[in-house]
Amino acid sequence: MNENLIAYLLAYLIGAVPFGLLFGLLFGGVNIKKSGSKSIGATNVLRVIKQDNPTLAKKLAILTIICDALKGILPILIGQFVFNLDISTLWAMGVLAVVGHCFSPYLMFEGGKGIATGAGVLAYFLPVELIIAVTVWFITGKVLKISSLASLFALLAMVVSSFILHYDMPHINTHAPVLIIAFVVVYKHLPNIKRLLSGAESKVI
């Protein structure tokens, strides 16, 4: 099999590992796919487990964010330093890691929202833009206390800043990977967007 195809498959399968679900089951004794927003992300881990154990909920939410971000960056680092793959292949691996998280074959092609995994990918390629996005996410989250809205503002900041700081994307000369990741994340947030527009979106306090 072609080396690149193997890299793509591994990136997708690693990205698809549902850490939030696994941590909830192993350490919280709860299936987060059946509670709260039914997402496998850190926000739902926090929301669901906080009801019985707030301290554990925070720890598992942080652990979920870290592991979901690592799913994005580790395949890329392995691809570069172990297999010496070219930059376009690494970008494709990053996109597929996000797709794997959002449409996991382990969960009948359901999954999370892609924010943390996308952040892991972009930490490698666009670290300055990621810092801007995380800053926007933190401020928006603190002020509005709505996780989905903070994530969407952070995504917008990431995309806009990438065009400002890297108008001619180094090595690949296209923003297509960033835009594909953004599209997937927005698509997975459509239910949240509908709730935001109707004023029914839950706050994280």
TrEMBL record:
Keyword Zinc among UniProt keywords: no
Catalytic activity annotation: an acyl phosphate + sn-glycerol 3-phosphate = a 1-acyl-sn-glycero-3-phosphate + phosphate
Alphabetized InterPro entries for the sequence: G3P_acylTferase_PlsY
Q: How does it sit in the membrane?
A: Multi-pass membrane protein
**Which parts of the chain span the membrane according to its record?**
6-30, 60-83, 89-109, 121-140, 146-165, 172-190
Its BP terms in the Gene Ontology are: phospholipid biosynthetic process
- In which compartments does the protein localize? Cell membrane
Alphabetically list the UniProt keywords: Acyltransferase, Cell membrane, Lipid biosynthesis, Lipid metabolism, Membrane, Phospholipid biosynthesis, Phospholipid metabolism, Transferase, Transmembrane, Transmembrane helix
One Gene Ontology CC term in the entry: plasma membrane
The role this protein plays is:
Catalyzes the transfer of an acyl group from acyl-phosphate (acyl-PO(4)) to glycerol-3-phosphate (G3P) to form lysophosphatidic acid (LPA). This enzyme utilizes acyl-phosphate as fatty acyl donor, but not acyl-CoA or acyl-ACP.
Task: Family membership, please give it.
Answer: Belongs to the PlsY family.
**Classification lineage:** Bacteria, Pseudomonadati, Campylobacterota, Epsilonproteobacteria, Campylobacterales
Q: In which pathway does it act?
A: Lipid metabolism; phospholipid metabolism
Query: Which gene codes for it?
Result: plsY
- Superkingdom is Bacteria
* Chief location: membrane
| EC number per UniProt | 2.3.1.275
**Assembly and binders:** Probably interacts with PlsX.
One Pfam entry for this protein is G3P_acyltransf
Residues in the signal sequence: none
Q: What class of enzyme is it?
A: transferase
- In which organism is this protein found? Campylobacter porcelli
> What name has this protein been given in UniProt?
Glycerol-3-phosphate acyltransferase
Any one Gene Ontology MF annotation carried by this entry is:
acyl-phosphate glycerol-3-phosphate acyltransferase activity
